[in-house]
């Protein structure tokens, strides 16, 4: 965007320093609207989040404004501690993948991960050590994902991974690989280190049934809680084999089919 479209008319006419005006926290009108753009709150939010000032990346006021917008967008979808996507964005992605599963008939896996005895880490080593443990886990997660996968921090010490386009056996394979990379996980703390484990629960969509994202997460949570009951440091999931049909069920289905054929004559 040409500078003459960004700098206020009053500054251009008077020959004043538009850069000084921008650095005060205001950026001028888009001349279509004739209103000044107040960036003070946006810049304060970025500063409090520990983000660099986007204005330092370019001399061009238009690019500086774009930098502020991009930084705010990035901040709105990512967890500030781990850099993974946050719970809000995670549920939006999961809802999209559930709908995709319904359209295509292909399943999508969901893996939920919880750090075992995380409170003990905070109580024993302090909250900074707990934060470092979460960051270390997040970094390990990032290294083991496909480009289409989405990893998120959805709670204090709870994480989730969306595994699109995965058959149940493929989802089990991917989840087993991710779980193995996290168990055990060594977190370096200066001169010492701690070893932690995680419990995981895996589920996948049913392409014939519509569910809410929160419902699928709840199902994965139940598998994760089972992993904890089984001794922690484990991964739980339901069988990938089709459920066996009993003789009585087969007979009832056959009778129903016969009745439908008779009624249809």
Could you characterize what this model shows?
The protein is of the alpha+beta class. The protein has helices spanning 9-14, 18-23, 40-48, 61-77, 87-104, 118-125, 127-143, 168-182, 213-229, 247-263; strands at residues 26-27, 37-38, 109-115, 150-153, 158-163, 185-189, 192-196, 198-204, 235-237. The protein folds into two domains: 3-77, no CATH class; 87-237, 2-Layer Sandwich (Alpha-Beta Plaits), CATH 3.30.70.270. 49% of the residues lie in helices and 15% in strands. The radius of gyration is 26 Å and the shape is flat. The termini are far apart.
Features:
single chain, 265 residues, alpha+beta, 5-stranded mixed beta sheet, 10 helices, flat, disordered N terminus
Summarize the structure.
This protein starts with 8 loop residues before the first helix and ends with a helix. It is built from 10 helices and 9 strands. The model is unreliable at 1-23 and 26-34 (pLDDT under 50).
CATH class categorisation of the largest domain: Alpha Beta
What separation lies between the terminal Cα atoms? 72 Å
User: Which percent band covers the strand fraction?
Assistant: 15-25%
Biggest sheet, strands in spatial order?
Answer: 4-5-3-8-9
Strand-pairing-aware structural class = alpha+beta
Give the SSE order as H and E letters. Answer: HHEEHHHEHHEEHEEEHEH
Q: If you compute it from the alpha carbons, what radius of gyration comes out, rounded to the nearest whole angstrom?
A: 26 Å
* Level-2 CATH architecture of the largest domain: 2-Layer Sandwich
């Amino acid at each position: 965007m040409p500078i003459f479209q960004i700098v206020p008319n009053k500054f251009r006419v008077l020959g004043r320093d538009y850069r000084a005006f921008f650095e005060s926290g205001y950026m001028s009108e888009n001349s279509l609207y004739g209103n000044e753009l107040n960036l003070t709150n946006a810049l304060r939010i970025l500063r409090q989040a520990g983000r660099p000032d986007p204005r330092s990346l370019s001399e061009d006021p238009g690019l500086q404004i774009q930098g502020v917008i991009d930084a705010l967008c990035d901040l709105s979808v990512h967890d500030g501690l781990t850099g993974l996507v946050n719970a809000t964005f995670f549920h939006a992605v999961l809802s999209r993948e559930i709908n995709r599963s319904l359209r295509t008939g292909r399943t999508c896996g969901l893996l939920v991960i919880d750090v075992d005895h995380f409170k003990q880490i905070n109580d024993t080593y302090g909250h900074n050590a707990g934060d470092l443990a979460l960051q270390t886990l997040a970094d390990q997660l990032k290294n083991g994902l496909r480009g289409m996968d989405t990893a998120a921090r959805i709670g204090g010490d709870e994480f989730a991974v969306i595994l699109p386009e995965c058959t149940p056996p493929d989802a089990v394979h991917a989840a087993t690989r991710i779980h193995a990379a996290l168990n055990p996980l060594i977190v370096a703390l200066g001169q010492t280190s701690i070893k932690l484990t995680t419990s995981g629960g895996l589920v996948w969509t049913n392409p014939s049934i519509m569910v809410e994202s929160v419902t699928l997460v709840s199902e994965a949570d139940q598998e994760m809680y089972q992993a904890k009951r089984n001794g922690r440091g484990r991964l739980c999931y339901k069988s990938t084999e089709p459920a066996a049909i009993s003789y009585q069920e087969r007979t009832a289905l056959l009778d129903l089919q016969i009745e439908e054929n008779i009624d249809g004559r």
